[in-house]
Structures are given as structure tokens and as C-alpha cells.
Amino acid sequence: MKLDKPLQHINKHNNFIYLTLALVMLLISASLVQVLRDNVIEYVMQGIIILIFIICFVSLQFDRKWTHFLRGLVVVWIGAITAQHAFDINEMSILMLALTFVFFYGTFQSLVRQILFTGQIDTNKLIGSLALFLLLGLMWAVAYLFLLELDPQAFNGLQAIKWEDNFSNSAYFSFVTLTTLGYGDISPVTPIAKTLVYLESIVGVFYMAVVVSSLVSSKLERKPNE
Questions:
Q1: Mean pLDDT value of segment 63-72
Q2: Using one digit for the tens of pLDDT, what is the confidence trace for 180-221?
Q3: pLDDT at 1
């Protein structure tokens, strides 16, 4: 397979770089697939997520806990996709959304163990800290989509449509919130939605403080050895 050669070059010195590129590719692709027909978007998004699965698995294979976690998740994911297409069960789309959140959360946990406050900060870990930030935004984006499935009136400016079609819009709102930009074109309406939004803003600010402190402490530890 053509994908094999790039994956063979992934090692402990560049694995976070590949992971970050995969997440950026997910965000860009989610925007691009909106120009396709509705019945194509679902399959394109599933294909992209599967590709992200593969890259993440290879990139983080050095974390045994995460590897076992992902193997189990893949089995459930394949079963959900099979059931959705075989029996045409609408509720399976909600399960797919939940599995996507679990995947992002598990990846985030694995990265935290390998990056923050563990040894010296190099280029690979620095880019990995960007992957952590992207995963935070993606987790909240999925949370917003899940809330829309339960309450279509939870947000102004965010329509309650199929989550595959709405992923890009939700990700946009999530990162605008995470960076505390607050353009105002999308806004929470219900109390639960408002709570999710301000919690994401708090986490975004706190994460920046953690990253800066981690970089500074790493720099101070390296000085005596230079």
C-alpha cells in the first residue's frame, strides 16, 4: 500500500509531528467535504476518521495503554458502522459521535502522559503540544454536536443537522471559543450549552498557562547542563 512507506518513517522523534498533521488534515477535510453531495459526506468523513485512526495508532504505538485502548475502540467502531449500514439504525450515528469523542479523549490522555512535564522539550514535543490544543477543540466540537442531537435549540447560528455535515461548523465555533475570540455569529442559548462554552474558555486559558510553564521549566532544567 502507498500508505505503508510514510508510516514506516514514524518514530519517537517525529510521531507527534505526524499526529498534528493528521489532526490538521481532519479539520481541513471537514470543511472541504461540505462542497460534496449530502449522501457522500458521511462516507468521506468516515474514511477520513479511519485514516486518522491509522496515523494516530502508528504515532502513539509507543504508549502501550493507548494501544490497547485503541484496539478495543476500533472493534466497537467497526461493529457500529456495520450495524448502521446493515440495519439502517439512526441511533447509530449518536453512537458514532460518542466513539469519536472517546477516541479524541483517549488520544489526549496519551499525549499528556508523553509530553507535559516529562523530560526536555524538543521540536517533536513542541508540535505535540499543538496537537493537544487541537484535541481539546475537537473534543468540545463533538460535545456541541452531541448536545445538538439532544436539544436542537441549544445554539443560535448552529443548525441541528446530521453531525457529519455539521462537524466543520461545530469545530469552528469550538476553536473560536477555545481561543476566547468570540465572534458572536454562533452563541449558546440553553444553560447546558452556556456551561459547556464557558468551561471551554476556561480550559483554553488554563492550557496556555500550563504549556508556557512547562516550556519555561524545561528551559530552566537545561541551563545547568549546558
A1: 75
A2: 888 889 999 999 999 999 999 999 999 888 877 776 666 556
A3: 43
- Is pTM beyond 0.70 here? yes
Per-residue HEC secondary structure of the chain comes to CCCHHHHHCCCCCCHHHHHHHHHHHHHHHHHHHHHCCHHHHHHHHHHHHHHHHHHHHHHCCCCHHHHHHHHHHHHHHHHHHHHHHHHCCCCHHHHHHHHHHHHHHHHHHHHHHHHCCCCCCCHHHHHHHHHHHHHHHHHHHHHHHHHHHHCCCCEECCCCCCHHHHHHHHHHHHHHHHCCCCCCCCEECCHHHHHHHHHHHHHHHHHHHHHHHHHHHHHHHHHHHC
Alpha-carbon distance of 147 to 178, in angstroms, equals: 17
